[in-house]
Amino acid sequence: MSSKVAVIGAGTIGRSFAYLFARSGCSVRVFDPREDLAEVVADLQAAVTADASARNQVASQIGTVEESETVEAAVDGTSFVQESGPEDVGAKPELFARIAEAADAEAVLATSSSTFPASSIAEHLDAEVAARVLVGHPFNPPHLMPLIEVVPSPVTSSAAIEAAVEFYRGCGREPVVIRKEIRGFVGNRLQNALMREAISLVQNGVVSAPELDAVMRNSLGLRWSAVGQFEGMHFGGGEAGIRGFMDHIGPAFSAIEDLPVDVDPAAMEEVFEQVEQAYGQSPTAEAAATRDRIQRAVLDARGQDH
Hints:
8-stranded mixed β-sheet, 8 strands, N-(1-d-carboxylethyl)-l-norvaline Dehydrogenase, domain 2, alpha/beta, Rossmann fold, 2 domains, globular
């Protein structure tokens, strides 16, 4: 894969995207107003080179990471732009107008936003530019987690959607096109539903925070690493599949009562304390490395690139 790509924003998500794109063979330019951008870019290039060596890739198969002094310099001549800047709905339309003016006329303009739909940006732009704007929402970190939610606005062109899907897939990701704009998209809505239920179970004294995590790791989390929600239900119904599952278990599940939940900080204090007692005041680098090692092992078992 050989493309000129721009990454605007070198925070956690932007750095991960830059690494992913360069590892996939792209020439990546990065812009961020941070003072240590040169050091960040040098570290990214070193990581890409080290990864290529570990994979026995030849130099022609890997890309490069370069710093740019301005947004315009970063996107000049690029075919794909991944914006991962601050979540400021007022500033993004202006930023995308600058991006569109300097990038190729056919360039796809993607935002990593997990909160703002593409239409909130597109409505302020010329029609030709708006047609190339979409959300490319990853799960963190995008160089490891395969999912990219491609969320077009109502005016995003089919050509831009197809180009984004092809680009992300060429980087070894698993893009899923979301058919309708909705707050939280799909992954975060599922995460939000589970998060609220988890909090309510702890707040109501049903289970402790680390015990709930043990339940997740040893049942649903393990299952969901192999199959999704609906395929799991299909298996659960035996020969009758999902229809049998719902016939036998659906009524009992629908009778499960909702527990009260309060996510205000004061009400969350007991949950906070349980989590910090179990895992420390702050997540450690060692714990993150263990998490990533396990996730890589799952991807290896599934035959997916990471």
